[in-house]
Design a protein that fits this description.
It is a single chain. This protein is of the alpha/beta class. The protein has a single domain (12-211), classed as Spore Coat Polysaccharide Biosynthesis Protein SpsA, Chain A (Alpha-Beta Complex), CATH 3.90.550. It contains eight helices and nine strands. The protein has helices at residues 26-33, 75-89, 110-118, 163-171, 174-181, 193-202, 233-240, 268-278, and strands spanning 12-18, 40-45, 94-101, 105-106, 160-162, 212-213, 246-248, 251-253, 259-260. The strands form three sheets. The protein has a four-stranded mixed β-sheet. α2 crosses α4 (163-171). This is Glycosyltransferase BC10-like. It is a single-pass type II membrane protein. Pfam families: Branch (PF02485). GO terms for molecular function: glycosyltransferase activity. Keywords: Glycoprotein, Glycosyltransferase, Membrane, Transferase.
């Protein structure tokens, strides 16, 4: 294969953390990253006034990017995602890009997750047509004719992208500007912009599923949050075994989720206690 880069390229995974304030689970992530040096890099988008206070030995030290304020359910979240991707794309070694929140945890060790991502033929973006008030009901007729109702898609915000798709999302402006222009008539554009755009132009490149497990059994606008009382080896194993099978490189697999959310601050200690035996780090 023709080498398109003027140097030996060690492929990295860019871990993109979209937060507002503190990152209470950073000690767990630092343990996860240990041993993966040279194969990952962290980027943090936070509230502009927030300074992430971690030790110089942390993977998060000095990794905040120039940020803007975000508001839940608004176009500002799409802006933050594109800002994270744009900063991460400046490092030519970054090959895969994972969007994470302050309440996310890894479910496996670094090597397992790294190999899963780098060996995948697809990007992991959830994109589906939902004929409900929260699906097609969020479509705005102002988006036509560029985006038809039949092309409108919904999906989880938490994506994983190959470099080529990350470049396309940052570079394109037609559909982004449409979303921005009519953001006032769109609900939760962060759940629709990337799923819709990629479905229209790069549908064959996405696995049509997310790698981040969440519990929506609360049936509210936010998923369930898990704290100290919930953290057991059995609970983490149940998340890893939640899906019976999914597709990976066109073959069925039982490893469908690599990350999970939403975990609170007081979940840190029990997670650190079980991570060596359950997550293997």
């Amino acid at each position: 294969m023709l080498n398109l880069y003027p140097f030996k390229r060690v492929l990295k995974v860019a871990f993109l953390f979209l937060i507002k304030g503190p990152l209470p689970l950073s000690p767990l992530w630092d343990r996860f990253f240990k041993g993966g040096e040279g194969h990952f890099i962290v980027y943090v988008h936070s509230s502009p006034r927030y300074h992430l206070n971690v030790s110089k030995t942390s993977a998060f030290y000095g990794r905040q990017i120039p940020s803007q304020a975000t508001e839940w359910g608004s176009m500002s979240l799409v802006d933050a995602e594109r800002r994270l991707l744009a900063n991460a794309l400046l490092d030519f070694s970054n090959e895969r890009f994972v969007l994470l929140s302050d309440g996310c945890i890894p479910l496996y060790d670094f090597v397992t997750i790294y190999r899963y991502l780098l060996r995948s033929d697809h990007s992991f973006v959830h994109s589906y047509d939902e004929d409900t008030e929260n699906g097609r009901g969020r479509y705005s007729r102002h988006l036509a004719p560029a985006i038809k109702l039949s092309q409108w898609r919904k999906g989880a915000q938490w994506f994983e992208l190959h470099r080529s798709l990350a470049v396309n999302i940052v570079a394109e402006d037609k559909y982004y500007n449409l979303f921005r222009k009519y953001a006032g008539s769109l609900n939760y554009p962060d759940e629709h912009y990337i799923p819709t755009y990629l479905s229209i132009f790069y549908g064959a490149s996405i696995a049509n599923r997310t790698l981040t497990w969440v519990d929506w059994s609360t049936r509210g606008p936010h998923p369930a949050t898990f704290g100290r009382r919930n953290i057991t080896e059995g609970f983490i194993q149940s998340i890893r075994n939640n899906a019976t099978t999914c597709s990976y490189n066109f073959r069925p697999t039982s490893v469908c989720f690599l990350f999970a959310r939403k975990f609170s601050r007081d979940a840190l200690e029990p997670l650190l206690n079980i991570s060596p035996t359950v997550m293997r780090f």
